[in-house]
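Q: My labmate handed me this sequence with no annotations at all. I'd like to see what the chain might look like in three dimensions before we decide whether it's worth expressing. Could you predict it?
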Amino acid sequence: MANRSLYQRLRRNAQVRTGLFCIGVLLMAVGVIIGPLPGPGFLILFPVGLMLCLQNSAWAKRRYVRFKRRHPRYGDWTDRIMRRVSAARRRARAALESLDDD
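A: Here is what I predict for the chain of 102 residues:
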């Protein structure tokens, strides 16, 4: 068995996952509240909270996928802000396809 980090071992516990999900929701709420204030608070807190929610909740993942299907442009923005590897892969594939079409 591979040597897992402490974070990975803790995330297997349902109570820890629920706690991380709640912290994610709290960070997103705080990000929305401090959004009007000057500074990058929203751009830091909201994506971090969203990442915690997506990593620890199947329900949140389903909602996020539905959101991205309905609003692909906003979904791309959130992927860029969260620096998702899958989004970078999709952008690279689209760039290659556009070069092949020319």
